[in-house]
């Protein structure tokens, strides 16, 4: 949002309402926003990553997801408070620019853009891998086809993006609810091959609730937090929601039950049917559970679900990268060419530029299909958590501005803030420390200083060429 639009907002004029979309079409309805919010919290981190986490922590992973889920709720309520103060498509990059400083907005916008480009490469690579389950075709062909199809869908209209996300999310939700119901049936009625041993007591009888100790549980936190990445995507939709003042608070308030059902509930059911010792890294806990139940079709079902989860994530990447580049350009912190919109209100140049970079994933799948996934996944967690940090810091600064009388009070105040925001920041700090201790996750922290250096130099160049573009003006 430009400084003129900010002034309009604080004046309370009707023009602010129309300007807040920054030229976008408000094509996302309540049904789509709700499913985007639900789908954002359910991805390959649950369907695949949970297997590795269970092997590291045992049943105590349930507690890790519950505590991390509470922190995610604090983050989303902080974001919700900011969104109701000023619903814009730039979202947390805009808030960082206003309440922390121009450089913070610059770093947040470009880092979140990179996060989705990297995630898009990762997910299109994963999707290509899943396709080999049914057809023996080169991975790069599938990766190219998926990239082109999703790029085309994002250019047509924001409504089509919303529809795709609605159905992608519906598939994921249906799969998890189906698994919960099957497990509940085994525990109560006693059908399938797993009925003889299935019991809630397996949550503590196989070496205790903390079989690897508290340390083992703490070491899974980076895996747990990775599973929740993209939950903040609902904030990027603010500028294109039909009624953001109504739909966004409703979507954010569903976070607790989403996490309770899809993560905590699903894990309780699965670990009550299948002993945690049967899970291993690289194998979906859903596949392992289906096999234990004697349902051979389970592997094909789960493969289809994780395929849609990967495509959903890549679709979200196509959507958010174009919007983030346009927000940077509107504020003079990115090339002006990214400000252009099509007649349907989509940022063509920004989306095309991001999609072109995602095609790097196609090349990686061509030259090294066996190692493609591990080449690009390491940076996603730390860059995604930076957005969460900026949301929390911005909300703390916003509260201080309200107290001074420099900003109007939000209609959707975060309960317990700013103390809940400080708690969430400390928790994220602990996760980053755990990442430093874990040799497998440490590579993420090696990449961060290099990216920070590149952004620092770029900002100094921007500031020297045009100081006005390196300042946020009310």
TrEMBL record:
<feature type="transmembrane region" description="Helical">
    <location>
        <begin position="414"/>
        <end position="437"/>
    </location>
</feature>
<keyword id="KW-0813">Transport</keyword>
<feature type="domain" description="Amino acid permease/ SLC12A">
    <location>
        <begin position="33"/>
        <end position="465"/>
    </location>
</feature>
<feature type="transmembrane region" description="Helical">
    <location>
        <begin position="99"/>
        <end position="119"/>
    </location>
</feature>
<feature type="transmembrane region" description="Helical">
    <location>
        <begin position="214"/>
        <end position="234"/>
    </location>
</feature>
<dbReference type="Pfam" id="PF00324">
    <property type="entry name" value="AA_permease"/>
</dbReference>
<feature type="transmembrane region" description="Helical">
    <location>
        <begin position="139"/>
        <end position="161"/>
    </location>
</feature>
<feature type="transmembrane region" description="Helical">
    <location>
        <begin position="294"/>
        <end position="314"/>
    </location>
</feature>
<feature type="transmembrane region" description="Helical">
    <location>
        <begin position="372"/>
        <end position="393"/>
    </location>
</feature>
<keyword id="KW-0812">Transmembrane</keyword>
<feature type="transmembrane region" description="Helical">
    <location>
        <begin position="35"/>
        <end position="54"/>
    </location>
</feature>
<feature type="transmembrane region" description="Helical">
    <location>
        <begin position="60"/>
        <end position="79"/>
    </location>
</feature>
<keyword id="KW-0029">Amino-acid transport</keyword>
<feature type="transmembrane region" description="Helical">
    <location>
        <begin position="443"/>
        <end position="462"/>
    </location>
</feature>
<protein>
    <submittedName>
        <fullName>Amino acid permease</fullName>
    </submittedName>
</protein>
<dbReference type="InterPro" id="IPR004841">
    <property type="entry name" value="AA-permease/SLC12A_dom"/>
</dbReference>
<dbReference type="InterPro" id="IPR004840">
    <property type="entry name" value="Amino_acid_permease_CS"/>
</dbReference>
<feature type="transmembrane region" description="Helical">
    <location>
        <begin position="255"/>
        <end position="274"/>
    </location>
</feature>
<keyword id="KW-1003">Cell membrane</keyword>
<feature type="region of interest" description="Disordered">
    <location>
        <begin position="1"/>
        <end position="22"/>
    </location>
</feature>
<comment type="similarity">
    <text>Belongs to the amino acid-polyamine-organocation (APC) superfamily. Amino acid transporter (AAT) (TC 2.A.3.1) family.</text>
</comment>
<keyword id="KW-0472">Membrane</keyword>
<feature type="transmembrane region" description="Helical">
    <location>
        <begin position="173"/>
        <end position="194"/>
    </location>
</feature>
<feature type="transmembrane region" description="Helical">
    <location>
        <begin position="346"/>
        <end position="366"/>
    </location>
</feature>
<keyword id="KW-1133">Transmembrane helix</keyword>
């Amino acid at each position: 949002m430009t400084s003129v639009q900010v002034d309009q907002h604080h004046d309370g004029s009707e023009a602010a309402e129309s300007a807040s979309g920054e030229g976008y079409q408000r094509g996302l309805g309540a049904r789509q926003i709700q499913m985007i919010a639900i789908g954002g919290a359910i991805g390959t981190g649950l369907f695949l990553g949970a297997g590795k986490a269970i092997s590291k922590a045992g049943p105590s992973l349930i507690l890790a997801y519950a505590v991390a889920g509470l922190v995610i709720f604090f983050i989303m309520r902080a974001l919700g408070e900011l969104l109701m103060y000023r619903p814009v498509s730039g979202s947390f990059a805009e808030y960082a620019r206003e309440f922390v400083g121009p450089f913070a907005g610059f770093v947040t916008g470009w880092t979140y853009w990179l996060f989705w480009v990297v995630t898009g490469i990762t997910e299109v690579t994963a999707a290509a891998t899943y396709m080999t389950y049914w057809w023996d075709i080169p991975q790069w062909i599938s990766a190219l086809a998926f990239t082109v199809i999703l790029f085309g869908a994002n250019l047509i209209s924001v409504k089509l993006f919303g529809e795709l996300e609605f159905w992608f999310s519906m598939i994921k939700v249906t799969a998890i609810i189906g698994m919960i119901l099957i497990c509940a049936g085994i525990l109560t009625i006693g059908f399938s091959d797993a009925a003889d041993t299935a019991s809630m007591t397996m949550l503590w009888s196989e070496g205790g609730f903390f079989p690897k100790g508290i340390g083992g549980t703490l070491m899974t936190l980076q895996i747990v937090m990775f599973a929740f990445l993209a939950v903040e995507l609902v904030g990027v939709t603010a500028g294109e929601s039909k009624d953001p003042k109504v739909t966004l608070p409703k979507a954010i308030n569903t976070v607790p039950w989403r996490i309770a059902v899809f993560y905590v509930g699903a894990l309780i059911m699965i670990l009550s049917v299948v002993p945690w010792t049967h899970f291993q890294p690289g194998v979906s806990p859903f596949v392992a559970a289906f096999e234990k139940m004697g349902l051979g079709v389970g592997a094909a079902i789960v493969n289809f679900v994780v395929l849609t989860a990967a495509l959903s994530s890549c679709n979200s990447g196509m959507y958010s990268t174009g919007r983030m580049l346009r927000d940077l350009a509107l504020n003079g912190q990115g090339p002006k060419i990214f400000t252009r919109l099509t007649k349907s209100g989509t940022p063509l140049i920004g989306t095309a530029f991001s999609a072109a970079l995602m095609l790097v994933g196609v090349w990686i799948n061509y030259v090294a299909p066996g190692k493609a996934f591990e080449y690009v996944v390491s940076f996603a967690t730390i860059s995604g958590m930076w957005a969460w940090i900026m949301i929390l810091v911005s909300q703390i600064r916003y509260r201080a501005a309200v107290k001074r009388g420099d900003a109007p009070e939000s209609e959707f105040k975060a309960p317990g803030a700013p103390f809940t925001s400080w708690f969430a920041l400390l928790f994220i700090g602990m996760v980053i420390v755990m990442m430093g201790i874990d040799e497998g996750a440490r590579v993420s922290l090696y990449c961060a200083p290099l990216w920070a250096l590149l952004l620092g130099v770029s900002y100094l160049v921007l500031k020297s060429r045009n100081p006005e573009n390196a300042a946020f003006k009310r």
